[in-house]
Amino acid sequence: MYCLLKCAPLILAVAVCHGWLFGDFVEKQKELDEISLWPLPQKFQSSAVAFKLSPASFQIVHAKQSSAGPSCSILVNAFRRYFEYMFGDLKKHEKSRNKVYDSDLVELQVWITSADPQCDGYPSLQSDESYELSVDKPSAVLKAANVWGALRGLETFSQLVYKDDYGANNINKTEISDFPRFAHRGILLDSSRHFLPLKVILANLEAMAMNKFNVFHWHIVDDPSFPYMSRTFPDLSQKGAYHPFTHVYTPSDVKMVIEFARMRGIRVIPEFDTPGHTQSWGNGIKDLLTPCYSGSSPSGTFGPVNPILNSSYDFMTQFFKEISTVFPDAYIHLGGDEVDFSCWKSNPDIQKFMAQQGFGTDYSKLESFYIQRLLDIVTATKKGYMVWQEVFDNGVKLKDDTVVEVWIGNKMEEELQNVTGAGFTTILSAPWYLDYISYGQDWQRYYKVEPLNFPGTDAQKKLVIGGEACLWGEYVDATNLTPRLWPRASAVAERLWSDKSVTDVGNAYNRLAQHRCRMVRRGIPAEPLFVGHCRQEYMGL
Amino acid sequence: MYCLLKCAPLILAVAVCHGWLFGDFVEKQKELDEISLWPLPQKFQSSAVAFKLSPASFQIVHAKQSSAGPSCSILVNAFRRYFEYMFGDLKKHEKSRNKVYDSDLVELQVWITSADPQCDGYPSLQSDESYELSVDKPSAVLKAANVWGALRGLETFSQLVYKDDYGANNINKTEISDFPRFAHRGILLDSSRHFLPLKVILANLEAMAMNKFNVFHWHIVDDPSFPYMSRTFPDLSQKGAYHPFTHVYTPSDVKMVIEFARMRGIRVIPEFDTPGHTQSWGNGIKDLLTPCYSGSSPSGTFGPVNPILNSSYDFMTQFFKEISTVFPDAYIHLGGDEVDFSCWKSNPDIQKFMAQQGFGTDYSKLESFYIQRLLDIVTATKKGYMVWQEVFDNGVKLKADTQIHVWKERPQYQDEMAKVTAAGFNALLSTPWYLNRISYGQDWVNVYKADPQNFTGTDAQKKLVIGGEACLWGEYVDATNLTPRLWPRASAVAERLWSDKSVTDVGNAYNRLAQHRCRMVRRGIPAEPLFVGHCRQEYMGL
């Protein structure tokens, strides 16, 4: 595709034409401006009137009426970030212009309307991310109830700025009223199958903000390694990480991730998956895992968490007490997926316990027994929990506010129907396993998914609170994670933010091609959609 | 997989154990040392005796008997490069050690044996890349006929060095005699569908050298853009590149690529594909492309190069005269694939010409007519040529030293390889190695299993297989994702083309390749993981 913006400004009005992939010219002003926006705002109006922005004089400021001021670090950091995104690549000499012209937009006023701007808070499932943006001479105004909406509006504002043929920054007269379709818009990264250096996680949080994602689902530990450094149980990472110093997340690293995410309105939900997917836990905690038997003697291998020992629950109580203080979000993801029963079946002590409890040979009852006790433990920490769908499928008794994550592709609609039919909130990730790659433009498949496309009442549909794009770690690490995730995850971002009616793949292609070039310009190695170029190609390797 | 090398050195001998993916211990010394080598050398012997290398005192030097000396820039640059690969990540304080111990390897002597070391030459299809490496106290000796073999041997030497638990550099007593199975081991990169910044091309040349690849097949122009800046026809890139200044390769850029490649024993073979795949050429050269017709009037679109105008051949004569001087390699790739006949069919002048020539409605005859004249033009520049298989399939008369590049999936490549070699032509295989095609999982395994000589034919036919190329077409890759997509998947091709035919054990290859990809990462190449695991030193970039 041809991303070159060919603009010929004439006094105040601009006559603008784009050369696109198939050589046709976009003439409607609306389409022209939309072209740069991702995800598409809910309500959008613009005119052909363009204003110039001078990096030397343009400012992002707190509106006089705003409840937030210079001490609001979330906003102050965001002002700097977006100023750099918009003007960072300007040549020095262009900064010498000081005189303000009539055609200039001199400032963006950010107006926080509610009494508590939440400058020092954390984003939550209930956060109001809506905003209103009005771009007109001499000032643009961004109005939001609190900082979370302001962050989304700043991203939109930065996407409206474009360069004309002379390299000058322009923005068109615009009115936007915007809000997310779904409240939970997440990315799952897996730091166990491959260790992800902090730098990689932070870069992806930046990219998430560019796409208005608001949840980082941190699948932090799993079978292969345990990089989370626990204060209470240091042996977990000491003995369970790939390397005890170089391949771990220290308490300070975790804090930094949480703060970096907070500054971008992103929640950090850690996942500590049990009772399966816990091989690496066993290295540091004696007797935590079930010893598997070969015939009548232990085989030396281990299975899921041992559900028949009180020591297992004592451990979980202490461990999740720590987790609940380290991670400020109201939710913890408890996993609960893919429990392999073969080891439990082989163990004579487990068999005895099954008989005592009257479980017969139904090992899913034993799994439920474990999960039930775990949920009680976590509930005591005042946290809500998310679980993978198996926990619901197995009939475990769940708190009302439990979020059930649907991940199994087969019979996905039926599962959504069942989960919401039972009154639980749910998020969808089954169609968005981005670790599965194939040749060609697979982003279209992710884009075409409609999360509410299942049989159910309106009340049921309302229980779908969002979705997540999952990038499991078998085949990705610092070398290839970022270009594999972006812009494929951007397709999910628009599906979860924009109106249900935004489904035109051709229009999306044009906008997404521009958007990926913008990410590249901002330093994110987002891979190409197809043949074409960016005005500024990726400068890294 | 667990890449951690756990080594406990005891006086001179080392008792070494590796913890691997499935927890079993590798005990045979041979396997232990092989583990770090990629591609596997032809003959290899090592013992448990280990020597220490001190970065402060170890040197790579010209052997006294060597025909090359300090003025041989290829070697001098290579000495520095491999010294940095081996010791570059050492802490400062470790460099303070000056005393030479009995257990030390103090130097690697590089001994070029032939009268002409080819220090100022270019690698060629005939280059002798064989070498012999002997690692023993106090000096290791690398013996090669010329610099090309020495470069391969230096890579192998650097792969033999490992760190023990204390961070000290060790190398085991080793004898290696090595040579490539195939003479042409290439990587195709496509700088037309996406422009590839120079940095990306150079990084991939580095990675190629780490894998003993020796041909960079530069698919430099195609339909979408023409980034090659021609001195003779500047309008080609001025009007045909994505951008006339930022998305072009200047003459200086091209020179730099060729020199950077030469220093690593890599040939640069440019491809200027005609008569199809030439949309971007038409922007800069009037009347070069065939005007397509819609009914009785021109539709405004254009097809392949116009084969019925003398001006087309005049252009090609001048253009390839330039190309033949800019690129020193003896071969040029002339393309010739996927010619779409629909535009030719629509054009009344072409129809008339077809009738005059007695071609009937067989447009492949017109294609052959064009190619035939093009080959004559290129032959006059004293260059040899490579072509995609269609040119052979269409029965164009070819010079005896033409190389036929097999890429199609149908008919299956084994049949095509048999046909091409039966006709007496050199054949190159790419079909199983289109690395732009991706799928979930460890697709390197199938890449690894393909063998270019796996077809029915005589020994003489097999000998006509000169190698193969891994192709990374550019539809879906650019600077953001090209390097991790190519490596280490292309490494699987590297071993198939270098190592002995019998080297086919996928499990053994997995262990070595996992180590090799971590080595590439350590050297700054973002080579993606094979599967779950880690590198001692993870990639530091983004």
From TrEMBL, chain A:
Q: Which domain of life is it from?
A: Eukaryota
Q: Where is the Glycoside hydrolase family 20 catalytic domain?
A: 182-499
Question: Is Zinc one of the keywords?
Answer: no
Task: Please give the chief subcellular localization of this protein.
Answer: cytoplasm
Q: Which cysteines are joined by disulfide bonds?
A: C72-C119, C292-C343, C517-C534
What is the role of this chain? Hydrolyzes the non-reducing end N-acetyl-D-hexosamine and/or sulfated N-acetyl-D-hexosamine of glycoconjugates, such as the oligosaccharide moieties from proteins and neutral glycolipids, or from certain mucopolysaccharides. The isozyme B does not hydrolyze each of these substrates, however hydrolyzes efficiently neutral oligosaccharide. Only the isozyme A is responsible for the degradation of GM2 gangliosides in the presence of GM2A. During fertilization is responsible, at least in part, for the zona block to polyspermy.
Listed under subunit, the entry gives: There are 3 forms of beta-hexosaminidase: hexosaminidase A is a heterodimer composed of one subunit alpha and one subunit beta (chain A and B); hexosaminidase B is a homodimer of two beta subunits (two chains A and B); hexosaminidase S is a homodimer of two alpha subunits. The composition of the dimer (isozyme A versus isozyme S) has a significant effect on the substrate specificity of the alpha subunit active site.
Q: Which keywords belong to this entry?
A: Cytoplasmic vesicle, Disulfide bond, Glycoprotein, Glycosidase, Hydrolase, Lipid metabolism, Lysosome, Signal
Entry protein name: Beta-hexosaminidase
Where does the chain cross the membrane? none
Gene that this sequence comes from: LOC113093900
Which is an annotated GO molecular function term of this record? beta-N-acetylhexosaminidase activity
Which residues constitute the catalytic centre? E338 (proton donor)
The Gene Ontology CC terms held by the record are: cortical granule; lysosome; membrane
Q: Which GO terms describe its biological process?
A: carbohydrate metabolic process; ganglioside catabolic process; glycosaminoglycan metabolic process
What EC identifiers does the entry list? 3.2.1.52
What organism is recorded for this protein? Carassius auratus
UniProtKB/TrEMBL annotation, chain B:
**Signal peptide limits:** 1-19
User: Can you give the residue ranges of the Beta-hexosaminidase eukaryotic type N-terminal domain?
Assistant: 37-160
GO MF annotations, alphabetized: beta-N-acetylhexosaminidase activity
| Pfam annotation, one family | Glycohydro_20b2
Q: Which BP terms from GO are recorded? A: carbohydrate metabolic process; ganglioside catabolic process; glycosaminoglycan metabolic process
EC number annotated for this UniProt entry: 3.2.1.52
Question: Where found?
Answer: Cytoplasmic vesicle, Secretory vesicle, Cortical granule; Lysosome
Q: Which UniProt keywords apply?
A: Cytoplasmic vesicle, Disulfide bond, Glycoprotein, Glycosidase, Hydrolase, Lipid metabolism, Lysosome, Signal
| Ranges for domain Glycoside hydrolase family 20 catalytic | 182-500
The subunit field of the Swiss-Prot or TrEMBL record says:
There are 3 forms of beta-hexosaminidase: hexosaminidase A is a heterodimer composed of one subunit alpha and one subunit beta (chain A and B); hexosaminidase B is a homodimer of two beta subunits (two chains A and B); hexosaminidase S is a homodimer of two alpha subunits. The composition of the dimer (isozyme A versus isozyme S) has a significant effect on the substrate specificity of the alpha subunit active site.
Protein family membership:
Belongs to the glycosyl hydrolase 20 family.
Q: What is this protein called?
A: Beta-hexosaminidase
